[in-house]
Structures are given as structure tokens and as C-alpha cells.
Design a protein that fits this description.
The structure is a single chain. A 4-stranded mixed β-sheet has the order 2-1-6-5, with helices on one face. The chain has a two-stranded antiparallel ribbon with strand order 3-4. A two-stranded antiparallel ribbon has the order 7-8. The chain has one domain: Roll (Ubiquitin-like (UB roll)). A hairpin with a 6-residue loop joins strand 5 and strand 6. It starts with 14 loop residues before the first strand and ends with a helix. The relative contact order is 0.18. It is mostly beta strands and 129 residues long. Helix content is 12%, strand content 35%. It has 2 helices and 8 strands.
């Protein structure tokens, strides 16, 4: 996997990864990967990331069962951002929505409005946080 060394990681060894639904093109989420999580994603065919807030390696769906099967991994022209096209099983968002991008700004109201339907209750999956 020497091609992973050609990517431009930030000072913390991370690279942003945008996950897109392989069938619909909908953007599901954005997270960070390091070389280890990217290599593991390639090896298993499922997305793995590095959590900056928890300082921890994790596999998408390890708690919820809502995994992402990788169909294709692309890199942008600057080699500093990844685009992962995946088949999403269940919700991508830890708040229970299909996508993490479930709020749209309503300029008339001056606030964020929730769009979409929750697919699961996060309290039942993760408990109280």
C-alpha cells in the first residue's frame, strides 16, 4: 500500500474523507482517516476512521451495526482529501439520520431546520452521552 504515502496528510497525520452514497450520490458524512485507518478500510472493504475528539480509531457501524461497504476510493487533485463511495447500511449519522447533513439553513427563519426522518433512536443504540 505504498500509494498511501503519496497522500498529503495534515500535521496530525490525518486526511479528510467525504463519504458519498454510491447509488444516489448523496453526501453521507465527513470524517478523518490516518494511514492505518485508510489501510484497514482498503483491507476490509468497510470504512474505518480516526476520531479527533476521542483520540481513537473506529470502524463505522461498530456500535450501531450501520456499516459502510466501500465501492470506490478517490483522491482529489491536491491529494489532500478523499472521496469514498460506499453502500450505506442503515443510518450514517450517529444522531440516527441517513446523512450527517440533515439540517438546512432557513434564511427566512434565521435558523437551522431538520430535514429527513430519523432511522433510529441514538439513546437506544448509544445510551446517554
Amino acid at each position: 500500500m505504498q500509494g498511501l504515502d503519496q497522500l498529503k496528510y495534515d500535521a496530525d497525520g490525518l486526511i479528510p474523507a467525504i463519504v458519498q452514497d454510491a447509488d444516489t450520490g448523496e453526501v453521507l458524512m465527513m470524517a478523518y482517516m490516518n494511514k492505518t485507518s485508510l489501510a484497514e478500510s482498503i483491507r476490509t472493504g468497510r470504512t474505518h476512521f480516526w476520531s479527533r475528539s476521542r483520540r481513537k480509531y473506529w470502524m463505522k457501524g461498530e456500535s450501531s451495526g450501520h456499516v459502510q461497504e466501500i465501492r470506490e476510493i478517490l483522491v482529489d487533485c491536491d491529494a489532500d482529501t478523499l472521496l469514498i463511495r460506499a453502500k450505506q447500511h442503515g443510518a450514517a449519522c450517529h444522531e440516527g439520520y441517513k446523512t450527517c447533513f440533515f439540517r438546512a439553513y432557513d434564511a427566512a427563519e434565521g435558523q437551522w431546520q431538520t430535514q429527513g426522518t430519523r432511522l433510529f433512536d441514538p439513546q437506544q443504540v448509544y445510551g446517554s452521552k
